[in-house]
Structure formats: structure tokens, C-alpha cells
Design brief:
3-stranded antiparallel β-sheet; about 230 residues; globular; Double Stranded RNA Binding Domain; Ribonuclease iii, N-terminal Endonuclease Domain, Chain A; 3 strands; mainly alpha; 12 helices
Length: about 230
């Protein structure tokens, strides 16, 4: 645990809080009666702490942006992808306590699990050291690492861009189709493809059908831009 504290740049007074942030529900379920609780309550708190810190950061950084723009930027900054990347940079997956099924199913690399654990760690820091320590950690591992162009990229609506491109020719018909899904119900991964006149021009995966279609559209745009 000391190595994780070093990566975070924060030494816990109550080490058990950090430990609690790393217990996935699958592990807690396999150890019922032992007093171990999952990190879900910490995740709930961490989500609120992260939301407040990010809102405060954006409010001060962009004094002239309207509420709608601030909301969209915040959503991009604290999305699962951002949290997953932050968790990966810390090697958080190797410290998680997972149940046997989740372990064998690749849970240490699953974006949703890592993102939730990252929020749980933020909550643990908040409970141990207060809001200013939590703020410092969130900035260090997440907000200060983000580049404006990365945020803008996540705000793009690839489906709309692709639709506008296709509509330039009246003889083109654009369709999306789900081609499969994988994983347990709580961490399902969907795969979608997009076709133009029944020819597949892009595929993508995501944790929702909408996200999978967005990545399929991005794939199509990248392919079409090379032609």
C-alpha cells in the first residue's frame, strides 16, 4: 500500500480507508460475514467530492463561460474514460481486491471498475485528510493532466458529424447496427457497426449502445477522411 501512497503523493493517517477503497463488490460478496464492505459507499461520496472540486475549478478557470458549457466540460473531465486513464496512470488495478469470477474475467483492467475505484480513493483521501487534500489529489492525478484538446475531443458528437458528411450525397443511406455484447450485466461491453449503403465503414465498442455507436462513427470518420 505504501507504493500506492507514493504514487498518489499522499500518506494516509487511517490506512484502512485506502484499503476500503479497493474492495470491489465481488470480493465483499465472497467474504460475507468477515466485516468487509465493498467500496460502493466510498464511490458514492467520491463522485460528489470530484463533482464539487471540478465544478469549482471550471468556475474559476472560465469566468465567462455559460452554465451549459461548464456542464459539458465537467462531464468530459469526470467521465469514465478520464477516471479510467487516471487509475491506469497509478496502476490502481494491481491493488484491487476482486472476487474470483471478476479476477478471471479481467476485472483489473475493466474501465468501469477502475473508474469507480478511482472515485473511491478520492473519497478515502477526503475522509482522511479533508477537502483540501482531496482537491490536491484530484488536481494532481486528473484535472492538471487534462489538456483542453482532449476535453474538446470527448465533447464531439461523431454521429452528427458523420450524418452531416453522408447527407452531402443523396444516394447514401446511413445505418447503425448492434453486432454483439460481452461481459456481466454490471459491466456490459457493446459492439456496434455503422454502414453506408449496407457496407460497413466503422465499428466501435462502449459501455452503452450509444457509446458504441459514437465510437463506430468516429472509426468511420477516420476511415473516410483518409480517402
Amino acid at each position: 500500500m505504501k507504493t500506492l501512497e507514493d504514487k498518489l503523493g499522499y500518506a494516509f493517517t487511517r490506512k484502512e480507508l485506502l484499503e476500503a477503497a479497493l474492495y470491489h463488490s465481488s470480493y465483499a460478496n465472497e467474504h460475507r460475514g468477515s466485516g468487509i464492505q465493498s467500496n460502493e459507499r466510498l464511490e458514492f461520496l467520491g463522485d460528489a467530492v470530484l463533482g464539487l472540486v471540478t465544478a469549482d475549478y471550471l468556475y474559476r478557470k472560465h469566468p465567462h463561460l455559460p452554465e451549459g458549457d461548464l456542464t459539458r466540460i465537467r462531464a468530459a473531465l469526470v467521465c469514465e474514460e478520464s477516471l479510467h486513464e487516471a487509475a491506469q496512470s497509478l496502476g490502481l488495478g494491481e491493488y484491487l481486491h476482486l472476487g474470483r469470477g471478476e479476477e478471471s474475467g479481467g476485472g483489473r483492467r475493466r474501465p468501469s471498475i477502475l473508474a469507480d475505484a478511482m472515485e473511491s480513493v478520492f473519497a478515502a483521501v477526503y475522509l482522511d485528510g479533508g477537502m483540501e487534500q482531496a482537491r490536491a489529489i484530484i488536481h494532481r492525478v486528473l484535472l492538471d493532466r487534462e489538456q483542453e484538446e482532449v476535453v474538446e475531443e470527448r465533447r464531439r458528437d461523431y454521429k452528427t458529424e458523420l450524418q452531416e458528411l453522408v447527407q452531402r450525397r443523396s444516394d447514401q443511406v446511413l445505418r447503425y447496427r448492434m453486432v454483439g455484447s460481452d461481459g456481466p450485466d454490471h459491466a456490459k461491453v457493446f459492439e456496434a457497426c455503422v454502414t453506408i449503403n449496407d457496407t460497413v465503414v466503422g465499428t466501435g465498442t462502449g459501455h452503452s449502445k450509444k457509446e458504441a455507436e459514437q465510437f463506430a462513427a468516429r472509426s468511420a470518420l477516420e476511415k473516410l477522411s483518409k480517402k
